[in-house]
UniProtKB/TrEMBL annotation:
Source taxon at top rank: Bacteria
Residue range(s) of DNA binding per entry: 30-49
UniProt source species: Onishia taeanensis
Name listed for the protein in its UniProt record: DNA-binding transcriptional regulator, AcrR family
Any single Pfam family the record assigns to this protein: TetR_C_24
Annotated SUPFAM superfamilies: Homeodomain-like, Tetracyclin repressor-like, C-terminal domain
Length: 195
């Protein structure tokens, strides 16, 4: 199963599906609703996907793949120090939420709806993303920027960042960069404003 491809129509289907899964939930979203939203016949969806489960897998795969690309690019562009890497990862995570919010929300809240083959297929992407965080948190712990258990700190940070999908307003008081600095600052890491 390789659900990432460059077909513009398929990508549009994935985008529409992500939106409907967020609005209606995976269980309540029907193939008919997806087709209606796309302005096509229900049977046309099956030209791109075997079933609704594969659509869910495609939404999560594309979102997770994009998050991984954004995070890796952010780490490549920072100066390489532990503080810069921690901030770059937080900023990249928030950027993912802004650029691909629906897919991210679906990955967070509908992962449990994936069947076992889909979870097995997507596990390597999720593990790769979490490993980036483990490495960055490990570097920050080693540098004395933060303290605690690497696994627990990683879960705490990701949980806080993921929760922003519920309340963060890009037009509000904090830019993504400022929000990343504030959140990382709460861990005890110095921020550009305090360093």
């Amino acid at each position: 199963m390789n659900v990432v491809n460059d077909s513009p129509r398929r990508r549009e289907l994935i985008r529409v599906a992500a939106q409907l899964f967020v609005q209606e939930g995976f269980d309540r979203t029907t193939v008919r609703m997806l087709a209606q939203e796309m302005g096509i016949k229900s049977g046309s969806l099956f030209h791109h996907f075997r079933d609704k489960q594969e659509i869910l897998c495609a939404v999560i795969e594309e979102g997770t793949h994009n998050a991984l690309v954004i995070a890796r690019e952010a780490l490549e562009q920072c100066d390489g120090g532990a503080e810069a890497r921690l901030h770059a990862m937080a900023r990249a995570h928030l950027e993912t939420l802004l650029t691909d919010r629906n897919a991210h929300v679906v990955a967070l809240y509908e992962w449990r709806r994936l069947d076992e083959p889909s979870r097995d297929h997507l596990g390597h992407l999720r593990d790769a993303y979490e490993q980036l965080w483990q490495d960055v948190i490990g570097d920050a712990l080693e540098a004395g920027l933060i303290r605690g258990d690497k696994f627990l700190v990683s879960r705490f940070v990701l949980g806080a960042l993921n929760w922003t999908v519920r309340w963060y307003d890009p037009a509000g008081a904090y830019s993504p960069d400022a929000l990343a600095s504030e959140l990382i600052g709460m861990l005890g890491a110095p921020t550009a404003a305090t360093a």
